[in-house]
């Protein structure tokens, strides 16, 4: 199978042009056709020679995302279930905010992290996506927004999968997204979320980017986190927190801690007190997420008043906190829900 053109960073395309006897500026022209004009046919790239277009056609292919399902919420959220070339399926979500359009991308088919409240892990991990398959999600979303002269203004890598277990592809994707010759998404408008893959957290801290880091913490201590997130047995709570401290010292950038509130499990006042104690000396922000009900899981949502009480305790302890605004609730927009339904129906 020919490699995907979207897999290649700008620097790699420059190198490819050099290897094929073409001047380096052809890479800029190619990048513009792909990401600014967003064409998916080498023949349309009219300022490239016929010979070069044929070389590109012989060497590369475009990622094909087959639209299996497209759901639109009352609040403007759009969720796609895309089919890949090998019959696997992934989810991508466009979220509309007052400050612009955000896209949530997926980095793996399925997930092996095993968080007990998440639908993404149902069925386990099938494979990693290539950088180009992640890129294609953004390009496809942007093509949809082109119809109304809107643009993707921010990206969250919070879809199915653990991006730091697909580190190289994720970093290549980021380099393509931020490049000034392409979509040119501002680094500070991109957030990578991890469940706490400690070696990759150190590596990411050393990348010297302005891209935001979010950690799915979901518990204030080792025992409870191991119960909710089996990955914590591999990378214990204190090791994860030490990696956070390294990141903060290295980058000076605030970390977002994502905390899914689960009724009667991790949402009691004592949990809020303990979390505040853990985070008290860190430059951070806590994003409280009322957990989505997943039929295959036996968890319930935290009552509304308890959510506000949890937030109040953190605020009183000096912790910056927000409660995530729910979007796409009427279209099962939480990670993995749409794919899980699709897997179930195809199995039948």
TrEMBL record:
* Database matches in InterPro entries: Aldolase_TIM (IPR013785), Elp3/MiaA/NifB-like_rSAM (IPR006638), Methyltransferase_A (IPR040072), RlmN_N (IPR048641), RNA_MTrfase_RlmN (IPR027492), rRNA_lsu_MTrfase_RlmN/Cfr (IPR004383), rSAM (IPR007197), rSAM_sf (IPR058240)
Residues recorded as binding S-adenosyl-L-methionine, renumbered to this chain, are 161-162, 193, 216-218, 292
* GO biological process entries: methylation
* NCBIfam families documented for this protein: rRNA_mod_RlmN
Q: Can you name one GO molecular function term for this protein?
A: methyltransferase activity
The protein here is known as: Probable dual-specificity RNA methyltransferase RlmN
* Entry-linked Gene3D superfamilies: 1.10.150.530, Aldolase class I
Q: What does this protein do?
A: Specifically methylates position 2 of adenine 2503 in 23S rRNA and position 2 of adenine 37 in tRNAs.
Keyword tRNA processing among record annotations? yes
State the family it belongs to.
Belongs to the radical SAM superfamily. RlmN family.
């Amino acid at each position: 199978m020919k490699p995907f053109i979207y897999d290649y960073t700008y620097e790699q395309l420059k190198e490819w042009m050099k290897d094929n006897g073409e001047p380096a500026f052809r890479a800029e022209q190619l990048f513009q056709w792909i990401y600014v004009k967003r064409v998916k046919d080498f023949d349309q790239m009219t300022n490239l020679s016929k010979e070069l277009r044929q070389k590109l056609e012989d060497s590369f292919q475009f990622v094909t995302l087959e639209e299996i399902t497209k759901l639109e919420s009352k609040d403007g959220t759009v969720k796609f279930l895309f089919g890949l070339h090998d019959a696997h399926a992934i989810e991508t979500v466009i979220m509309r905010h007052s400050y612009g359009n955000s896209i949530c991308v997926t980095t793996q088919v399925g997930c092996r992290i095993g968080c007990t409240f998440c639908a993404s892990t149902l069925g386990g991990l099938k494979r990693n996506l290539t950088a180009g398959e992640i890129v294609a999600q953004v390009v496809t979303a942007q093509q949809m927004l082109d119809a109304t002269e809107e643009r993707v203004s921010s990206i969250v890598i919070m879809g199915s999968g653990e991006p730091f277990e697909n580190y190289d592809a994720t970093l290549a994707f980021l380099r393509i997204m931020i490049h000034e010759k392409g979509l040119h998404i501002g680094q500070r408008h991109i957030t990578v979320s991890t469940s706490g893959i400690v070696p990759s957290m150190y590596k990411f801290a050393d990348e010297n980017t302005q891209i935001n880091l979010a950690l799915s913490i979901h518990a204030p201590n080792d025992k409870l986190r191991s119960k909710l997130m089996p990955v914590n047995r591999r990378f214990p709570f204190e090791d994860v927190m030490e990696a956070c401290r390294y990141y903060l010292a290295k980058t000076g950038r605030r970390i977002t801690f994502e905390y899914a509130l689960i009724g009667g499990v991790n949402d009691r006042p004592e949990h809020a007190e303990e979390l505040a104690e853990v985070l008290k000396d860190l430059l951070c922000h806590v994003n409280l997420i009322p957990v989505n009900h997943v039929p295959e899981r036996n968890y319930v949502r935290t009552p509304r008043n308890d959510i506000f009480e949890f937030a109040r305790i953190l605020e009183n302890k000096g912790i910056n906190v927000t409660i995530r605004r729910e979007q796409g609730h009427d279209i099962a927009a939480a990670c993995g829900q749409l794919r899980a339904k699709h897997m179930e129906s195809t199995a039948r």
